[in-house]
TrEMBL record:
UniProt entry keywords in alphabetical sequence: Cytoplasm, Methyltransferase, RNA-binding, rRNA processing, S-adenosyl-L-methionine, Transferase
Biological function: Specifically dimethylates two adjacent adenosines (A1518 and A1519) in the loop of a conserved hairpin near the 3'-end of 16S rRNA in the 30S particle. May play a critical role in biogenesis of 30S subunits.
Main location per the UniProt record: cytoplasm
Organism: Aurantiacibacter luteus
UniProt keyword S-adenosyl-L-methionine present: yes
Signal peptide start and end residues: none
Keyword rRNA processing among UniProt keywords: yes
Family annotation (PANTHER family): DIMETHYLADENOSINE TRANSFERASE, DIMETHYLADENOSINE TRANSFERASE-RELATED
Organism lineage string: Bacteria, Pseudomonadati, Pseudomonadota, Alphaproteobacteria, Sphingomonadales
NCBIfam families membership: ksgA
Gene3D superfamilies: Ribosomal RNA adenine dimethylase-like, domain 2, Vaccinia Virus protein VP39
UniProt name for this protein: Ribosomal RNA small subunit methyltransferase A
Amino acid sequence: MSKSLPPLREVIAAHGLSASKALGQNFLLDEQLLDRIAAIPGDLADRAVLEIGPGPGGLTRALLRAEARVTAIERDARCIPALADLQEAFPGKLRVVENDALAIDHAELMGEPFAVVANLPYNIGTLLFTRWLAVPDWPPAWTSLTLMFQQEVARRVVAAPGSSEFGRLAVLAQWRSRAKLAMKVHRSAFTPPPKVMSAIVHVTPAEAPQGVRIATLERVTEAAFGQRRKMLRQSLKGVDGALAALDELGMDSTRRAETLTVDEFVALARALDQRMSQVTSR
Ligand SMILES: C[S@@+](CC[C@H](N)C(=O)[O-])C[C@H]1O[C@@H](n2cnc3c(N)ncnc32)[C@H](O)[C@@H]1O
């Protein structure tokens, strides 16, 4: 049983946690909202959870109340004493790692399958996300990603083909995962409020298509969306074998990148990989 905790505003005042813009600090203080966020990944009782950027520990508390075993990586040394109070309130349930989340191998740190739940610092959010999605082994060590992004980024993650938001991030997030928009969060929920609205995406691993290397998929999407208004026959010119692969698949090379489905990108990358292996085995 945990002892009662002081309101988050008091924690912030007591530890002098004035929000740092450079560290992307926009804190969530509404404990009901935080409990709803912690419920998005489903039952967390006794599950290992990785939180990036606990700050004063609002989301961390909610995860601990949901009976998760939490590992939290925080870069700001000022937050560590506030988190120590949480460790005392939930003995043995919270491990705090003071470090840069980008400098750590998360799978190695956790040593067991884990869910990621985080109100990410906006300046490194996309980089962390793409790193989790691009791991070579699949299924990955993480069992789900529940992540707060700026709403515009969240929409790009879940975007459907044919929309202007559909691009590399959507293909990367959807080719071997399921990604959905779980909750919109108004800017006024944060202290201080950011300029834009936020939203939480929930991503779970799905079966990976066979015979496709992620490096090839990334190369194709980078080229195709790098010149998204151009026809594929133009934008994919620089990718060796891509025009022949389009032909082989019967795909119209006058189409533009955003009209292709995720499956079509996968098929294109697979055809390229097959051509490559034919060339190298000759
Ligand atoms: C948007 S705030 C979220 C704080 C808290 N989880 C909440 O919801 O109120 C982002 C947090 O990430 C931390 N942070 C920023 N860059 C980081 C990094 N590279 N590694 C780990 N934590 C980082 C910040 O210090 C801050 O506490």
